[in-house]
Amino acid sequence: MEDIEQVEARLRNIRSITPILSALRTIALGGWRVALARLNAVRAYQEQLTDILYLILPRLSGTRLHGQPTKATVARRGLLVIGSERGLCGLFTTSVVAVAEAELARWRAMGIEGELMVLGERARREFRRRNLFPVWEARLPVTGVPSICLAAELVAKTLPRFNRGELEAVAVAYNHYLGPARYESRVLELLPLVWPHRAVRRPPWPPPIIDTDPYSLYQQITEQLVLIAFFRVLLESAAAEQSARFQLMEGASQNSHRLIDELTLAYHMARQQRITMEMLDLAVGAGLVGQSQTQWSEMSSTDMPADL
Fold first, then answer.
1. Helices 121-129 and 92-109 sit at what angle, rounded to 10 degrees?
2. pLDDT band at residue 82, thresholds of 50, 70 and 90?
């Protein structure tokens, strides 16, 4: 059994970190809920844009559509990697960096030059450890969820170059949210824009009246859809990261409470053992233990039956 001072020190240390684990768990839970709420709102907005898009497409016959640039002048693609700003979320960053590295190797085998862009300090460190250096990098919120301003910044850096033919495609490597503490590292192509799938619906009645130039309206909608595409992957990654961190902090909190219970029991047992030993020492010092042994020896030699 451990010494009582060692048990008490371990118990004190674990009790000191329990509030920190609880705070990290609460922060992760809040970020997870915010990411899911914004993700649902973005999906609803995307559906509304898609409905408008399919209403004006019949009016654009014979017009070159925005978002489909002329042929790229060089075989170059951009790869955006969304990692994490801090740890405590398992293999979240390592897995997405491995997927991105494999995608860059596949491009090189095809004779395509890849431009690496990184979000998150952990991902940046991991790439530098592998001797891969991004052409552009930025930080993610430490405790919150990425804003649409970050998505707008990404669009401003990639969409004009794509439209000019400097990039033939832009892809993103991120962790796709599948459920609580469940995610999948994948690569998704954001440009050229793939229009969201639209279920077959009954045409609206009465038919809408479109006074705006259809092509101008189409340009605005497609730019919004590109922005939403970037924002969605940011939110998917944030939901996956915060849910993974929440589950890990939840497990760590449960383990800390279990260890506190075990160490408290061990502390009481060690304390009882120390008290027992002190009482025995007092008894020996007072001669009580020796007297008991003498009385037992006399009783065993005179009073007990001979056949025992």
1. 50
2. very high
